[in-house]
Each structure stands twice: as structure tokens, then as C-alpha cells.
Amino acid sequence: MLDLLEYDFMQRALIVAVLVGLIAPVIGTFLVQRRLALLGDGIGHVALTGVALGYLTGNSPVIVALLVAGGAAVLIELIRVRARASGDVALALLFYGGIAGGLLLIGLTPGANTATLTAFLFGSVSSVSQEDVWVISALAVVVIAVIGYFGRELFVLCQDEEVARAHGLPVRLLSLVIAVTAALTVVLAMRVVGVLLVSALMVVPVAAAQQLTRSFRVTVALAVVIGVICAVGGLSTTYYVEVAPGGAIVLLTLVVFAVAVVIGRATRGRRGVPHTPREEDAAATVGTMPQTDRGSVST
To answer: Quick one: pLDDT at residue 298?
Structure first.
């Protein structure tokens, strides 16, 4: 295991993997609670347009992707609120426009083709540069600071938007905070996981944690632990087996989720705790416990 640290590119990749495993589940918890689990996926597709635009203009693909993804996050909130479109319609617009824009712009870039985007689509260990490490570290600090500052208000918003509005909270501003923070997280994670799978690292660790606890804070803490272990574990696997890191990381999170489902059901059955309403209505569906309790774990 320690032989991984002998190589500079693995050191950079592991640093980024830890940051991604730490941040993605945190913002993912808020997205899952708001039933916007696929928001990260939609923003990831638009980030691909930013990457291609970066190559076309000769600027940093990560920086340009950050600007484009942030703009897309604001746009999707405007579409949801002002155009009265449902969340899934807004996300579909991002899916189609993002992937089409990326392919179009990379085709116009001299000396580049669709293969240039492969590292960003599926993640790549060797493509993580020292500049990426600094940029991603700065983004991680920003995300942590935003969540730390707005955490209480975001929790109320995620439980019930009407209750948040009744308490005088700036619902539209907080919605934008979640969307833009999700965009930062997508750009942060795309180097390791890839834009096509980045949403999985934001959602699956949270879904696994929700099988085991009702507390919101414990869910966040547990999801972070799962995210870091899976990110580092999946990335380390690619050192020994020549596979895309994104696939290895996401498959590992799915294995953890399956184990959490079994443990969660066994624990609830032993305690006599009834299954979730969704499980009662449809036994074939894997439900999650509502995270209506902030919890008391110290972080």
C-alpha cells in the first residue's frame, strides 16, 4: 500500500480523492433531502461543456468548467422557479445541452477530439496536475465554509420549503447556495470520478448512511466516512488494476450500500422498528429513513 506514495501522481490523486470523498457526501446529503439527487449529474454534463470551452480558448479546463457549472446551477434554479418547469425537466435540459455543447466545442478545438474528454468523463489518475490539487483544495475550503455558515438554514430548507419560508429564511438564496455548492463539488470531483459518475459519489454514500441512522448529522458524518474510504479504496485499486478510477470508486460505494441495506434491515428487525413507509408499500423498493432529526454528534 505504501508503494502508492512513491509516485508524485498518486500522491496528488490521493489528496484529491480524500477531498472529494469528504465534500461530495456533505453536499449530497442536502440534495438527497431535497429530492434533487440528480442535480449533480445534470451539472456534471454542463461542466463537460466548460472543459471543452477551456481547451478551445486555451485556458484551464477546470477553471472554465467551474465558471460554466456555477452559471448552470443558477440557471437551473431560475428555470425551476421562473419558468415553472419541474425539476426533472430542468435537469433534462442540462443533460442534453451539456453533452451536446461539450462535443461541439471539442470538435472545434484544433488538435483535440472526443478522446480528449475521456479523462473528464470517467476520471483519470495520471491527469491530476499540481495546479488541479491547489484549485480543488481551494474549492473544498469554500464548500466547507459555505456549508458551515449556512448549515442550520439549509437543514430547515431541506426538511420543508414552506416551513423555511414561514420562518423568514431566504428560500431562493438558500436554494441557489445549494445549487452553486453542488456545482463546485462536481468540478472538484470530476478529475477523480469523472463527470458521468460524480453524482453517484454525492448520492450513494448518503443513501448507504440513511440505511443505518435517522439523525441528519450522523448521516452526514457516516456518509463522509464512506465517501473517503470508497474514494481512496477505489483509487488505490486502479494502481494495481488498469481500470477507470470513477468506475472502481462508484462500484465500491454500491457494495457498501448493499451491505448497509442488509445491516439496516437486520438491525431494525432485531429492535422491532417498523420498516420505512416506502418499504411497507413496496417490499421490492429499498427505502431510506427520514432525516428529520438534526442529531447531536459533534463535528
So the answer is: 40
Supply the pTM of this predicted model.
0.78
Give residue 100's identity as a one-letter amino acid code: A
Is a pLDDT exceeding 70 seen at residue 116?
yes
**What is the rounded average pLDDT of the residues 38-67?**
85
Residues 195, 44 contacting (CB under 8 angstroms): yes
Residues across the chain: 299
Instruction: Map the chain to HEC letters.
Output: CHHHHHCHHHHHHHHHHHHHHHHHHHHHHHHHHCCCCCHHHHHHHHHHHHHHHHHHHCCCHHHHHHHHHHHHHHHHHHHHHCCCCCHHHHHHHHHHHHHHHHHHHHHHCCCCCHHHHHHHHHCCCCCCCHHHHHHHHHHHHHHHHHHHHHHHHHHHHHHCHHHHHHCCCCHHHHHHHHHHHHHHHHHHHCCCCCCCCHHHHHHHHHHHHHCCCCEHHHHHHHHHHHHHHHHHHHHHHHHHCCCCHHHHHHHHHHHHHHHHHHHHHHHHHHHCCCCCHHHHHCCCCCCCCCCCECCCCCC
The distance from CA 183 to its chain's CA centroid, rounded to whole angstroms, is: 9
Lowest-pLDDT choice from 100-104, 111-115, 232-236? 111-115
Question: 115-119, 164-168, 281-285 — which one is most confidently predicted on average?
Answer: 164-168
Q: How far apart are the C-alpha atoms of 154 and 170, rounded to whole Å?
A: 10
Residue with grid cell 470531483, as numbered in its chain: 189
223 pLDDT tier (thresholds 50, 70, 90)? very high
CB atoms within 10 A of CB 270: 8
Phi and psi torsions of 21, nearest 5°: -65, -25
